[in-house]
Structures are given as structure tokens and as C-alpha cells.
């Protein structure tokens, strides 16, 4: 579903991403593990077409992100690391706004928002202002936003960073459920996160891929 081949990104003299290749198939949750500054966000942004690669290709469902970025974005939901939310808006209102941006109107929009609210567990919070929600619930709003166009692929940048243990376990449960019929790629700098969620881990350090292996295999090596 997602094929990354020989991806490179250079900023001045710095190789932020240095020849990274991996693939993620449907029903897979792939953990993208590496310390801060390893190149995780840059790789994700290149996969979405937000950052142009210096070299290499990304294909989603066979579409090259540089040739057909809209075809790619239609299939990918993205949760950025620092998701800017409108804190004054009500959850329901915000998701209607996001649905509207994606071209949904009328009954279809109402149904989609109702589905999203239920899907990410925001039923009791939907009439609250986003600014009044805990970080964990704000992250659910971000996940709902990423799901609004019913994408086949989810790219989540550090989805549990800054959450408390309870919130982390709830967001993990959600990601696990979503991964059942989607392709999920999420980044983290915490190994247990990968162990808890993923079938496969792609480990990067200083822009280079250092391992791409089933989690069980990595655990056995450690
Ligand atoms: P991670 O997500 O793993 O923390 P990033 O992809 O954000 O890592 O960053 C990888 C490296 O690239 C870092 O050294 C970062 O400082 C650098 N970098 C990222 N974006 C830019 C940019 N727009 N301009 C210059 N350097 C950048
Ligand atoms: P139905 O299949 O009867 O339309 P659903 O509850 O499956 O009922 O869907 C209700 C609404 O939610 C529809 O507008 C549908 O397009 C939308 N929807 C269904 N699945 C997803 C999904 N994974 N992500 C986003 N929206 C979805």
C-alpha cells in the first residue's frame, strides 16, 4: 500500500533522511522508531507530499506522490505531531468544518461526523469546546480529523507523546482497532510503544534505516 524507495532529504549540508526504503501493507501497523531528530517527521511529510524529496520515490496505492499528490492525499489521513486545533470551536462544529473542507455537505456530512464521533469515542465530548478537553481527548479529535475522508492509510506522528498513561493506553487501543483494516504508520521514540502496537518496526537513526523487522525478532535480538 505504501512503498518508500531510496528516499533522501538534504537540508544544506545535513542529510535529514538518507536512503530510506520500506513498505507497509494493508492491515499492518508499522512503527517508525527513532530518537528525536532521526528523520521520522521528514519522512512522513515526504510520504504526504508536503516536503519534496531530494531523491527517491513514495507510492501510495501505486500513485507516485510527486506525480499525483491529490490521489495520494485522498488515501492518506495524517495526524501531525503538533496538530493545530481551533480551541474555541466545539468538537462537533470542528469536525463539521473539517468535513466541509473535504467537500461533504448536508446529510452525508452529518452522518460522517456522527460516525467519527462514535468511532474515536467522543460521544460525550462532542458538545464541548476543544479547549476544554484533556490532551487525550484532543488527540481523539485529531484522529477523527485524520479519518474524515475515510482514508486507507493513516500516518500518525508521535500520536501518544505528551499523554498520561491512561490516555496512552486508550489511544493505543484506538490505533490497534483502526489498524485492522487500514495501513497504519506511526512514529515514536519509545520502544515499548512499538512492542505494544506493531507487527513490524522500522528503526531509523540519523536519517538512516538501521532495522526493518518483525517486532518479535527485534525483541529476540535485544
Ligand atoms: P524526527 O521526526 O525523527 O524528530 P525530523 O524529521 O523532524 O526528525 O528531523 C530530522 C533532521 O532534519 C533534524 O536534524 C532536523 O533538525 C532537520 N530538519 C527537519 N526539518 C528541517 C527544515 N525544514 N530545515 C532544516 N532542517 C530540518
Ligand atoms: P453506512 O455504511 O450505512 O453508510 P456507516 O456507519 O458505515 O453507515 O457510515 C456512516 C457514514 O460514515 C458514511 O457517510 C460513511 O461514508 C462514513 N464512514 C464510514 N466508514 C468511515 C471511515 N472509516 N472513515 C470515515 N468515514 C466513514
What does this structure look like?
The chain is of the alpha/beta class and 222 residues long. It has helices at 40-48, 69-75, 91-101, 106-119, 135-147, 165-178, 191-197, 215-221, and strands at residues 2-11, 14-24, 29-33, 55-60, 63-64, 76-79, 153-157, 183-188, 200-205, 208-214. 37% of the residues lie in helices and 28% in strands. Helix 3 (91-101) crosses helix 4 (106-119) and helix 5 runs parallel beside helix 6 (165-178). It has a six-stranded mixed β-sheet with strand order 6-7-8-3-9-10, sandwiched between helices. The mean pLDDT is 94. The two termini are 29 Å apart. The chain is globular. A hairpin with a 2-residue loop joins strand 1 and strand 2. The site of one adenosine-5'-diphosphate has 10 residues, from helix 1. Belongs to the ABC transporter superfamily. Keywords: ATP-binding, Nucleotide-binding, Transport. GO terms for molecular function: ATP binding; ATP hydrolysis activity.
